[in-house]
Every structure is written in C-alpha cells, then in structure tokens.
Specification:
By secondary structure, the protein is an alpha/beta fold. Among the domains are: about 35-200, Sandwich (Immunoglobulin-like), CATH 2.60.40; about 250-345, Chitobiase, domain 2 (2-Layer Sandwich), CATH 3.30.379; about 390-645, Glycosidases (TIM Barrel, Alpha-Beta Barrel). The protein is built from 21 helices and 39 strands. The model is unreliable at about 1-40, about 300-310 and about 595 (pLDDT under 50).
Length: about 900
C-alpha cells in the first residue's frame, strides 16, 4: 500500500507543539494574538521582504554511521542533516515562525537559536529562542538535526517553507519554491544541496550494495541490448499469444485510412480505439482499407475453470487478420474488438503508416489488469485521468483503481456532505481546520494551489463514462478506517457548524471519533488523529452514506458499482483507550447470540470487525469489497463474503509471497501489487535526483517491470536483489509452527492470482507532468506482464521450493530468452512505440543515458535503442552522438525523446581509462 520508507508500522507518539498565529491565509488570528504583530514590530511588507530575501539550503550530511540516534525511535536508525538560513535583509524581530514539511521527523536537533516542534504529520514549526539575535544581511544560521530512518533523495526535502506572524497573512519563502527544468519539464529544488558522497549520502548502511546510477553504471546495464529496429516490425505491446506472418505478401499501406464495416456492432463500443488510430495518422476514409468487424465463435468463455495460476481468460479475446485487400477483426465482445484495433495500432509505423500482412490470435493472461492512481495526497486533474484512460485502453488494461480519500485530502463531491470537499479537498494555514486541512507534503499556506482540488459529481460521472467507453472499470477507493484524517476533520468541521446552529442531533450524525478517547498512537505518516472510531454507529452511518452516494453516481453514469475499495487500513494502537470501544467489546462478550455476535475478545480485533462488517454491508448491496492485503489478513475468513478482492502489496524480498498465497488459497480475488516492481512512484534508477519514494526499491525501471514473474513470486529471488542491492532467499515450502498450525506454504492446485495492478502514490508527485513521467513508459511493461505470459517465466512448483541465486529454477536458457525478448521490447519502445506516446501528448520519462569516456572517446547507449543521444563538452554546444567520438572531458550527455523535442536529464562524465 503506502508506507513512506519503512515497511514496519511505527507506533511513536509524537509531541505536538502549542501553535499560535493566524488561523488562515486571510489573516484571521487566534484569540489573544491580535496585537502580536505590533508587539513584534513586523508589518506585512516587512514579512514579505524577509520571505523574499531568506535563502534556505537543505543539506543531507550522512545516512551511514550516524552517531547519537535515539535508540527508541526508528529502531535506532537516523540520518544527519542541516538547514542553513541566510537572509539578505536585516530582521531583528522575533515575532515570527517558519512552518515547513519534514518528511522524516526530527529525533534530535542542535541549535541555541531555534526551537523546533512537530505540529501534525510532517508539518513542523521553527521559532527563534531568546538567544537568537536576529538576521543580519549575509549571515547564516544553521539548524542541525538527526531524523528518523534515511533521506536518500533530493525529493525528501519538501518545498514551500512559509513565514507566519500573528495578525499577518502567511508568506512562502521564495527560495523554497520549486523550479522547473526547461529541457525536461521536471521539478527542481534549488534549495537542496546536491548529493556528492555516494558512500555517506546515498548508502543507508555499511553493507548497502546499491550503485548510484551514473552514466557508467547505466552503460553496463544497457550494453547487452543491441540497436536492432527490425525487431520492432511485427512487435505489439502487449505481446499477443500468436503472430503468424503471411509469406510472400508485401506490406499493407494505411496511408489512405480505413473504411469501417461495423456489421451491427455499435459504433460507440470501438469509437475510442478508432480515435487512437486517427491520432496516429490512420483516419476513416471511403477509399481506405476495409476493416470488418465479425463474430468470434466461442469467445467470451474461460479456457479453464477456477482461477489457476496462469489460466487465461477469453473475455477480450480477438483474432486479427491483415491482408492487402481487407482487415478482419473477430471478437465476441466490445473489449475484444477494441483490443483488435489496439493491436492494429501497435503494428503501425507512424512514419510509413504501413503494416505487414499477418494473423494474430490473442486473449489476455489475467482478467484483472489494473492501474491505481492516488489523487488524495496531491490532487491530479480530470484531464490527466482521461489521458491515462486513453493509454490504458491502448495497451489493454481494464481496471482503474481511483484512490480519492486519504489523510491529506478528500477528492470526490458527496451529496449531503459538502464539508468533505469544502474543507477536506484543500490544505492551508488554518490551525483550527475549519476551512481546510493543515498543510502537508510541502503544500504551503495557500489553498489555491494545484495540489488542492476535487472531482465534482459531474466530473466523476464523466470519468466513469469515458472509462466505460474504453472497456475499463473504475474502482473507487476511500481509505478507512486508517488514513481517514481528511474525512475526520471534515466531519468535525461539520459538527462544529451544526452545533453552533443549534442542531445537536445533526451535529452528531456523522461523528467519526469518540470524544472521550484518550488513545495515544501514531500512523506511519506520524498522524495521531487519522483513524475513525470503528466502535461508533455514526462511523458506519458515514461509510454507508458515502458508499450509497458513490453507487448513485455510478447508476447515473450507467455503470453499476461492482467493486468498492475500502482500503482496510488501520493504525496500530488505535481505540485501546476509547470508552466506546471498551463498551462494544464488553457488550459483545456478554452476547448470548453467537450467530449474530462478532466474538470480539479485545480491542485488537476491532480492525477485523470493521472490515468484516463493511464487506457484508457491501455484499448486501451487490458490491464486492476490496482492500489491501495487510488489513484483509486480519479478518476471519468465515466472517467475510466468499468473494472479496485483496491487493497484495508485500515486498517479495521480505516474504511477500507468503501472504499472497494465503489469500489466493482462500479463493479471494487476489491482485498482485508488490511494491518493488509495481509501485510507479518509486524511482526509475538509483539516483538521488530521480523523483519518487524508495522504501521498497531504489531502482524500478522498465526492464525490471518486464522481468517480473507474477505467477511464481518466490522465483524472482533468483534474479532480483533487495532494497540494498543484496541477494535474498524466498522460501515457498510448507511451514508449520510448534502447534502444527500452518504459517505459510505454496499455492494450492487450482488457485492463483486474479491479476496485477500498478500503483501510483502521490505524496511527492505534485503535477500532472510529474505523474506522467512516473507512470510512462512503465505502464506499457505493466500491460505486457498483465496480458502476456512469457515462455521464460519459471513454472510454479506446487510442492513448494526454496529460491535463491543458486537454486537453478531460472535456467540459463530462460535467462537467454528473457534477454532476447527484452531486446525486442526495448527496440519496439525506442524505434516505434514511444513516438505514439509523443503523439498522444504523454510526457513520459526520457531515460538518462549510459556513457563512458574510454581513451578519450565517448561511447554511449540508451535503455531504449533508437532514441537520439546528445553530448556537450564544457562551454560548448550540444552535439548529436552518432558513434564513438573523440571528446575532452568533462562533458554532459543526455537522451532525446522519440520526437526529438524533449530532452532527458543530463549526466556528467569524466574520463575512465581501460
């Protein structure tokens, strides 16, 4: 799911600061602070000058061997960092505070001049002490500190520090605003000092074996992939089951377009796929090649009963035949016809608009081929979602898991609960949280920013209908009972409003917290107030209200709500001191009706009680419940509906196959969502300048996604390493405890996975452009593994097996096939497919280059052969790279997008001799 660096739940109770200052960005103040600005001697203009002239520099000093870590926090691990403050103007007054997001909370800070406190979550507050003598122009004041765990990326340092003074409007410190690289379009952080020491700054322990992905490391990784554009000729992503070229027949030109013969097929079912062909240059025309839509006998049925690993579904099956005179697409459903057109588009070379004569017979590997997008942490626009749906359809993905509520935001308008979006959809500096949520994730003090926002009811209906036209199901997700702070604070604001209006009954209708609860807990994101109380009937009233209103939007869109993802997150330690929960447990223990009673023995079972109860509520409404695997694993299977969906997000290197097998063996619809390969908010390469969180892996490029063996999770131990670049072992044999109870073991015969899903969490991803960078082109490799089972994948061993680097199941022959098929895939991307993303306006990641200087000559390569490479000597102009060339180091190297317009991030080289 969504841990932010550590895979273990933290239970640290964080102290809160006594906050004071203006209540919101409009200058409202808390009681007793009205004259503080005059007492401090700061005017709004002076605060603005101070903010404009204050230079902030964030420096990570070390992640390895740090001394003085708090042994009680983060398992005694920490990093050391410093923040320098240098003002260009004089500021002697002390009536101000700096608020900023610090993703890994401070364990110990060293400063005589500042006090530092945690406000909530990642929001921190810095204030001057009596020892602070003010800022003088050019003088630097430094805050040194130790923080929890590690900071291994520039992206950890959040932007938009802001100044607050009582009675004044908060002001963002200009030097902490994000900039944008003019070549790549990526966010840059001018306030972060570059990492320069790989051993101390980019390693997280003395045994860390991860290599910083400089140009030399990338050159070695790319070296075995040849430049062979001919491999792309009959290649389609995702790979079909069978492609048979027609001998002795020349290419078929689509330059004059296509003439569509629908044969009673409703045009709306294939309109989106036809529109994509038109964007590629193949429009409809009376003089074009005829495309016939014809029935496919026996399609729409599964080839096997049950859900055995590797079983293929016939839903979406199609047959494509291309001849000089006509193109026939045979299918039994709208998905099959659309996928046939998608494969035709995949064959098209946009330069020549020619395709070879051939036959394709195809059907998908998994029925669930999904992409998850988090718009809760930072909002992403409807326009982005529609672009994503277009590309999901182009590559035969069929499920959009839309995560619209979490701690940091509620993003869907709900009829009758306006506060969810009036308050919960935006973040600003309102310490009362009457008008917005507190700033988090570097959002700054103002609500009017791109990270705030929501989908109106009309927006959501449009998304549903747009998805349905592309044979994609939208699965809404509003995370509960943990990760629910946006809902809790919104309903608290509602309650205050109605109480003030003299409506106490209405004020309590959707109460989500027990006011007498004295529980002290902390979530992984360091919130102590983000878990709704599962012992209150009003909580269930709220959840049902939300579900019913979302179901109504689906009804209005003509797309019944089939799955609802409840998240199933909880916060460890919540509810233990809640009188409402003590009463519920006690009352349940005394129940004489064991058929109806939930057999609650302690508050430890309350998380399971909530999930079980909501799953049954959904079942009664004809909706399948879905949740993340950790929360789902706490439930009692006999109290759950027989059919539920579980997203398995456990890391394979740390035993992630065990829970996946346990839940698949229950007969649940188990969807693989493993972080080290399916989290697309992780970096592409191991480089501190690459955006993305990295608690599961620091390198998840397209080749890594391509290499995934989903039907045999444990077998990936033969080809992958853990987060520190070290080999690991995956034991898939039967394991029993001392009492003979099963702890883990292999899949049962006839059981398997429903599919796979890519994840995009957005804590560090603020803009649509950055999200597109993170999703593409990895989404294409997600589609490849979801649709096509490669012949190099290790067959599953139902008797159980132990997998490691020497176990030998992943044979040399399999490895050679994988390498050969990657060469085909890489050349298809580089010489043909990325160009299609350009035409669709997708700002995919242009890769960083591999390069070396050997005996004075530059040699360079790229992960996707066919993309252009440029180099620049010091003080010179960018030059195209066409092959080994004499250069004078140091120099910079970069890659061009397929259309030659955008550039990727450049890397600097120095000479390396043989």
């Amino acid at each position: 799911m969504k841990l932010t660096f550590a895979a273990a739940t933290l239970t640290l109770a964080m102290g809160l600061s006594a906050c004071s200052g203006p209540a919101d960005t409009q200058g409202r103040t808390e009681p007793g602070t009205k004259n503080a600005a005059q007492q401090g001697g700061i005017s709004q203009a002076e605060l603005q000058r101070f903010a404009d002239g204050l230079q902030v520099k964030y420096r990570v000093l070390s992640n390895v061997g740090t001394q003085g870590c708090d042994a009680a926090r983060a398992d005694g691990r920490c990093f050391s960092a410093a923040i320098d403050f240098t003002s260009s103007v004089e500021m002697r007054a002390k009536g101000w505070a700096i608020y900023f997001s610090q993703m890994r909370p401070v364990q110990v800070f060293r400063s005589q001049e500042f006090n530092l406190s945690q406000v909530k979550g990642d929001l921190h507050k810095l204030t001057p002490t009596p020892a602070f003598n003010g800022f003088r122009p050019g003088e630097t004041h430094t805050l040194s500190f130790l923080g929890d765990y590690w900071q291994l990326s520039e992206i950890d340092a959040m932007p938009n520090y802001y100044l607050v003074a009582a009675g004044l409007k908060p002001v963002v410190i200009a030097s902490t605003r994000l900039s944008r690289d003019p070549d790549t379009g990526l966010e840059t952080r001018p306030y972060v000092e570059d990492f320069v020491d790989a051993e101390r700054q980019y390693k997280r322990s003395e045994t860390d074996a991860i290599d910083w992905a400089g140009a030399g490391v990338l050159f070695e990784a790319n070296a075995a992939t040849p430049i062979a554009p001919a491999l792309a000729l009959n290649s389609i992503i995702p790979t079909p089951k069978a492609v048979t070229p027609v001998p002795d027949v020349g290419p078929v030109s689509l330059a004059n377009g296509i003439e569509v013969v629908l044969n009673r097929l409703p045009r709306a079912e294939v309109a989106a796929a036809l529109a994509r062909l038109a964007r590629l240059g193949v429009a409809e025309s009376d003089t074009g090649v005829t495309v016939n839509f014809l029935p496919l006998a026996e399609a729409g049925k599964e080839t096997d009963t049950g859900n055995e690993a590797g079983a293929e579904t016939r839903e979406g099956a199609y047959r494509l035949e291309i001849r000089p005179g006509a193109i026939d697409i045979r299918a039994a459903d709208a998905a099959g016809f659309s996928y046939g057109l998608a494969s035709l588009a995949g064959l098209v070379d946009v330069n020549s608009l020619k395709v070879n004569a051939l036959s394709i017979e195809d059907s998908p590997r998994y029925p669930f081929r999904g992409m998850h997008v988090d718009v809760a942490r930072n909002f992403h626009t409807k326009a982005f979602i529609l672009k994503l749906l277009d590309q999901m359809a182009a590559y035969k993905l069929n499920k959009l898991h839309l995560h619209m509520a979490d701690d940091e935001g509620w993003r869907l308008e709900i009829e009758g609960l306006p506060e969810l979006t009036e308050v919960g959809s935006k973040r600003c500096h309102d310490l009362t949280e009457d008008t917005c949520l507190l700033p988090q994730l570097g959002s700054g003090p103002d609500a009017d920013t791109g990270v705030s926002g929501y989908y109106s009811k009309a927006d959501y209906i449009e998304i549903l209908q747009y998805a349905a036209a592309r044979q994609i199901e939208v699965i809404p997700s509003m995370d509960m009972p943990g990760h629910s702070r946006a809902a809790i604070k919104s309903m608290a604001a509602r309650s205050r409003r109605l109480s003030a209006a003299g409506e106490p009954v209405a004020a309590a209708e959707y109460n989500l917290v027990d006011p007498l609860d004295e529980t002290s807990y902390a979530s992984v994101q360091y919130y102590d107030d983000n878990t709704l109380n599962v012992c209150l009937e009003s909580s269930y009233h709220f959840v049902e209200k939300v579900i019913d209103e979302i179901a109504e939007l689906h009804r209005q869109a003509g797309q019944p709500l089939r799955h609802y993802h409840i998240g199933a997150d909880e916060t460890a330690g919540a509810w233990v001191d809640s009188p409402a929960c003590r009463h519920l447990v006690s009352a349940n223990a005394d129940s004489q009706d064991r058929d109806e009673g939930e057999e609650l023995g302690s508050t430890a079972q309350l998380g399971a009680y909530f999930i079980e109860r909501i799953a049954k509520l959904l079942q009664a409404k004809g909706i399948e419940a879905a949740g993340w695997s950790d929360g789902m694993s706490h439930t009692r299977a006999e109290k759950m509906p027989a059919k539920v969906q579980s997203n398995v997000w456990d890391i394979i290197a740390y035993g992630g196959h065990v829970r996946a097998h346990q839940q698949a063996n229950l007969g649940w619809d188990t969807v693989l969502s493993n972080p080290e390969v399916l989290y697309f908010d992780f970096p592409y390469e191991a480089d501190p300048k690459e955006p993305g969180y990295y608690w599961g892996t620091r390198r998840n490029n397209s080749r890594h996604v391509f290499s995934f063996m989903p039907d045999n999770l444990a077998a990936n131990a033969e080809q992958w390493t853990d987060i520190q670049g070290l080999p690991f072992e995956a034991d898939d044999r039967l394991k029993l405890n001392a009492a003979g109870q099963k702890l883990g073991g292999p899949l049962l015969q006839g059981k398997g996975f429903q599919g796979i899903q890519g994840q995009l969490w957005s804590e560090t991803l603020r803009s649509d452009a950055t999200v597109e960078y993170m999703v593409f082109p990895r989404l294409l490799m997600l589609a490849e593994r979801a649709w096509h089972k490669a012949d190099w994948e290790v067959p599953y061993q139902y008797q159980g097996a132990l997998y490691n680097r020497t176990s030998g199941f992943f044979s040399q022959e399999m490895r050679a096939k994988q390498a050969a098929q990657w060469s085909r895939m890489a050349n298809t991307l580089g010489s043909k497919e990325l160009r299609k993303l350009d035409l669709a306006g997708i700002r995919y990641r242009v890769p960083t280059p591999g390069a070396r200087i050997v005996d004075g000559n530059l040699v360079a390569n790229v992960i996707f052969p066919g993309l252009g490479i440029e180099y620049r000597e010091a003080g010179g102009q960018w030059q195209p790279y066409a092959g080994p060339v004499a250069v004078k180091p140091p120099l910079d190297v970069r890659v061009l997008a397929a259309d030659g317009r955008r550039r990727g991030r450049s890397l600097t080289l120095i000479e390396r001799r043989k």
